[in-house]
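Q: What would this chain look like folded?
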Amino acid sequence: MTDIVSPVLAGIILGFGFYGAWIGAVIALALTGAVVAATRLPPRRVDGQRVHPT
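A: My prediction, written as structure tokens:
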């Protein structure tokens, strides 16, 4: 979805000269991806090893 939305959104925002909005949108997209990835990764133990469910 981001492969389609990002270029279209960039064209609209940059076309109107809203460079600050584009920077904010990119940061928001990156943070959203990081949060989604963090919630889907398996938990880690204190020593850094992954915990495998048995």
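The longest helix spans residues 19-40.
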